[in-house]
């Protein structure tokens, strides 16, 4: 079959459900042939050198195994890539688009999917898909309560953990209420990234989980009628701690790395990150003192998955699918989980791996500040994306413009 | 090439140049205005409902006007106090390196210097302050935008000073100042009354550019400016980076407002100019010698120079140190260990980035120089002097905030399939490089003494001979300076590179800004150092070449 025809056929099928495994393997061979020699432009946030190095390494693997060249387009914000695809759609450019692959999740995914900016479904037809722990890690197929429907493929799990300097904090708080007490007792030593920053809004959602009467409501879209009463405890909590935050809440760090820098500079004593392995990795890199440790809250902390998606007009769709599949490879996943590399949690079901592949994970050292999977506690599901948008907006109206 | 062809090409040059300014800006603006106006102006309505609007507007105006006024006054004070004195030559040598610092690098250096966890606090702690951990003080991102104003002054003062130095020899200061002195005027009064009016006439365009830039800067305001709310232009970028279409409409409306604000501020400035001119005339008629001004002004000028050069220098030294720092805890004054790891890690990637930066920068600068000189030559040959309207068009890319018209340009590039090539990015840079090159060059070029041409013509020299053998060589200094300015502008471009390059063209600046959102001072330091190297080299050449060319021509050395 002609390569173009094969691909067109792939794109036109809702899924390969009707194809036998053998036929699927043949189609994948077609994709591999198509991908060979392609250059895939992966638009991914470029603010962390460790992640950048990891993507470079992925590129080497892709070249070595499949003859695919990977170009990491470093973004300051994922929305830049969304804006680019949107601009191309508005300009009527339905093929040969600049973006082949996007690191994405949450509201960006919801926005792209609802505006028809994504190619798919493709994820569940990738050869490595059966290894994904769909049952044990529901976040791999549910992105902020929105079913992914195969329009994006997971590649890493993240969970909110708190970080503290053991030299300054002896008994870290275990609940949101205790955190407030600690903040009031230690003025100026805690803050959070300014919403609508991703991590800052995640922190607000974590507080919401802790103070809301019925957190189960978070799994449904915001209900206008009840909203004000439902979130009132969140604003009360913030009103209480704000005077005791870093800079009396008259300024906030702008993103996760800026928050991490405050801990590194000793300006804050308790911090948090969306990566259980971050503290260990930063200690290893000499950026954090080796007295830093991590903790989670009783009842669990919010967790989600990172995905890759392919725009509807990607110029190198086959290459992009090859990269998405490569990201699910056990060797790649084990490397991502290595605290010395990234410390990201794997999306794979370790039980489904071969003994050899499972050994790769068993061999990993946790790192001095990283909690064991058992100590990490339960993972709370991301609330529906409308909560994120709404509380970020309201936060800005309440605190985002100086009085 | 025959004379006729040259003549025809020259006639076309102004049209081509203006077209390069107007078409992209107009297309981009249309692309901005459309979403702002759609749905019956829903974007404007939402903007008006945004609670931070008044404050964001006030911040843009306040930091923009404040920093521009301060930079201009200090420029005048430094020139008045030191022109013609030995210390002046030392100052001169400071300007080029200061000027070549990219805005983002300067802001980051300054931020690390003055932050509560910054170098100054580390140097005096715990000995003088008793601080074992950084004090909880709001110095950076202060609500009034004072750090931002300081940062802007530190960057704009060297720019205005350089522009003034380029123009100064054309004002006849060498003759006027001694006359004022023999009449008993103090240095300051003599300079302000006799030289400033002629100097300001040539400095006006750079001052307007500074004002428009200061009001709309995004990178410096993100690093140093307030955040609750930020300045209007930063807020536009924040809205633009939200995924929802509604916030894009607000961003478009805010971009239109920002454009109007810049126009209003320029009008205000223009009015103040008239008032200042009247005050100056009145002072001159009083005939007071005002010698008492000299000493305090000299002190002020010296302090300002020391603070500006010192803060930029120390900030960059801090970044340089971070680029080789191992563990560096507060309140240690110096890192516990030094390592080249960050450099070794990033060098392989940098070779590629560096070459892309250079290709784009050199192409845009060269094209800008050729077009500018062709326009200026058409001016004298065909008397095609730009009218006020044509000049206003040339200003467009400097007055219209980048964020206002770049998204529209991006759509245009995508539609024509020109996105993501080095040539397209160079073309986009040209839109911003060209005005700066023209503004830098037109003053000194026009102020060239036309009697030299007349004398040459009476001796039988042809038009083109006069151009190639007299005017161009005599203008070597200004041309190279304009080229260096152009290269510095190109190297510093972030949004055009990102949007028009489709992310496929990576320059040192796009890399540095992507990293700066990650706050890793070590890598930022390494990138800032490399980002410095290109423009620094260009300004070095602009200073060194005329000095070598004119080593036997004392009178020519002022034109640098």
From TrEMBL, chain A:
<dbReference type="Pfam" id="PF13416">
    <property type="entry name" value="SBP_bac_8"/>
</dbReference>
<dbReference type="InterPro" id="IPR006059">
    <property type="entry name" value="SBP"/>
</dbReference>
<feature type="signal peptide">
    <location>
        <begin position="1"/>
        <end position="17"/>
    </location>
</feature>
<keyword id="KW-0732">Signal</keyword>
<protein>
    <submittedName>
        <fullName>ABC transporter substrate-binding protein</fullName>
    </submittedName>
</protein>
<dbReference type="InterPro" id="IPR027020">
    <property type="entry name" value="YnjB"/>
</dbReference>
């Amino acid at each position: 079959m002609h390569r173009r025809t094969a691909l067109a056929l792939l794109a036109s099928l809702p899924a390969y459900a009707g194809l036998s495994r053998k036929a699927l393997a043949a189609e994948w061979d077609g994709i591999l042939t198509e991908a060979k020699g392609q250059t895939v432009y992966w638009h991914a946030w470029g603010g962390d050198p460790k992640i950048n190095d990891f993507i470079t390494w992925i590129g080497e693997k892709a070249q070595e195994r499949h003859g695919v060249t990977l170009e990491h387009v470093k973004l300051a914000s994922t929305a830049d890539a969304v804006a680019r695809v949107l601009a191309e759609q508005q300009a009527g450019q339905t093929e040969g688009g600049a973006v082949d692959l996007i690191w994405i999740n949450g509201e960006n995914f919801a926005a792209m999917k609802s505006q028809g900016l994504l190619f798919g479904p493709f994820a569940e037809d990738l050869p490595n898909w059966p290894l994904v722990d769909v049952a044990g890690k529901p976040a791999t197929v549910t992105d902020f309560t929105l079913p992914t429907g195969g329009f994006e493929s997971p590649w890493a799990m993240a969970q909110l953990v708190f970080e503290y300097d053991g030299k300054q904090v002896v008994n870290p708080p275990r609940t949101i209420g205790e955190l407030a007490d600690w903040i009031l007792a230690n003025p100026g030593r805690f803050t959070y990234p300014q919403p609508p920053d991703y991590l800052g809004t995640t922190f607000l959602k974590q507080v919401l989980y802790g103070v809301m009467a019925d957190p189960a409501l978070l799994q449904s879209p915001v209900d206008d009628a009840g909203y004000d009463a439902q979130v009132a405890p969140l604003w009360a909590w913030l009103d209480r701690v704000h005077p005791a935050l870093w800079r009396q809440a008259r300024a906030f760090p702008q993103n996760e790395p800026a928050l991490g820098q405050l801990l590194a500079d000793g300006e804050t004593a308790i911090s948090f990150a969306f990566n259980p392995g971050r503290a260990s990795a930063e200690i290893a890199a000499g950026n954090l003192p080796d007295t830093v440790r991590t903790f989670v809250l009783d009842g669990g902390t919010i967790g989600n998955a990172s995905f890759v998606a392919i725009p509807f007009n990607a110029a190198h769709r086959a290459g992009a699918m090859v990269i998405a599949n490569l990201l699910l490879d056990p060797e790649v996943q084990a490397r991502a989980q290595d605290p010395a590399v990234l410390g990201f949690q794997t999306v794979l079901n370790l039980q489904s791996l071969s003994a050899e592949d499972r050994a790769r994970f068993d061999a990993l050292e946790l790192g001095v500040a990283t909690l064991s999977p058992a100590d990490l506690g339960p993972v709370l599901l991301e609330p529906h994306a409308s909560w994120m948008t709404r509380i970020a907006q309201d936060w800005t109206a309440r605190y985002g413009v100086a009085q | 090439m025959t004379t006729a062809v040259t003549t025809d090409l020259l006639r076309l040059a102004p049209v081509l140049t203006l077209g390069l300014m107007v078409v992209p800006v107009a297309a981009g603006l249309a692309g901005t205005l459309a979403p702002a106006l759609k749905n019956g102006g829903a974007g404007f309505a939402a903007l008006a409902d945004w609670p931070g609007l008044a404050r964001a507007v006030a911040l843009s105006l306040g930091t923009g006007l404040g920093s521009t006024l301060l930079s201009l006054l200090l420029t005048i004070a430094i020139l008045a106090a030191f022109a013609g004195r030995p210390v002046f030559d030392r100052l001169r040598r400071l300007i080029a390196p200061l000027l070549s610092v990219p805005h983002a690098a300067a802001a980051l250096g300054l931020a690390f210097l003055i932050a509560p966890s910054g170098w100054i606090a580390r140097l005096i702690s715990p000995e003088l302050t008793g601080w074992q951990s950084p004090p909880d003080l709001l110095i950076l991102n202060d609500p009034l935008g004072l750090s931002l104003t300081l940062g802007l002054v530190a960057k704009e003062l060297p720019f205005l000073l350089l522009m003034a130095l380029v123009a100064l020899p054309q004002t006849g200061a060498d003759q006027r100042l001694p006359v004022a002195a023999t009449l008993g005027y103090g240095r300051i009064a003599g300079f302000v009354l006799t030289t400033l009016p002629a100097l300001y006439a040539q400095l006006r365009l750079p001052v307007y550019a500074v004002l428009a830039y200061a009001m709309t800067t995004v990178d410096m305001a993100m690093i140093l400016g307030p955040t609750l709310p930020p300045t209007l232009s930063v807020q536009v970028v924040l809205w633009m980076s939200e995924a929802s279409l509604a916030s894009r409409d607000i961003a478009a409306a805010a971009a239109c407002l920002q454009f109007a604000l810049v126009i209003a501020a320029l009008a205000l400035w223009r009015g103040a100019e008239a008032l200042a001119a009247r005050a100056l005339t009145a002072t001159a008629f009083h005939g007071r010698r005002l010698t008492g001004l000299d000493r305090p002004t000299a002190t002020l000028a010296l302090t300002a120079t020391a603070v500006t050069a010192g803060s930029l220098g120390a900030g960059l030294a801090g970044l340089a140190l971070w680029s080789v720092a191992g563990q560096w805890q507060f309140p240690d004054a110096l890192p516990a260990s030094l390592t080249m790891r960050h450099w070794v890690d990033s060098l392989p990637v940098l070779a590629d980035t560096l070459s892309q930066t250079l290709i784009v920068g050199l192409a845009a600068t060269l094209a800008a120089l050729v077009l500018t000189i062709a326009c200026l030559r058409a001016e004298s040959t065909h008397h095609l002097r730009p009218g006020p309207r044509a000049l206003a068009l040339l200003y467009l890319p400097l007055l219209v905030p980048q964020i206002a018209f770049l998204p529209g340009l991006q759509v245009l590039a995508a539609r024509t399939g020109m996105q993501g090539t080095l040539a397209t990015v160079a073309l986009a840079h040209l839109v911003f490089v060209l005005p700066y090159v023209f503004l830098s060059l037109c003053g000194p070029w026009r102020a060239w003494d036309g009697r030299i041409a007349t004398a040459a013509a009476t001796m039988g020299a042809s038009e083109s001979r006069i151009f190639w053998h007299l005017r161009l060589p005599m203008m070597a200094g200004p041309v190279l300076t304009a080229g260096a300015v152009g290269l510095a502008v190109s190297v510093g471009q972030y949004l055009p590179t990102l949007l028009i390059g489709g992310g496929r063209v990576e320059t040192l600046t796009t890399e540095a800004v992507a990293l700066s959102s990650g706050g890793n001072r070590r890598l930022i330091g390494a990138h800032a150092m490399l980002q410095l190297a290109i423009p620094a080299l260009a300004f070095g050449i602009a200073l060194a070449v005329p000095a070598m060319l004119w080593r036997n021509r004392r009178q020519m050395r002022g034109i640098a």
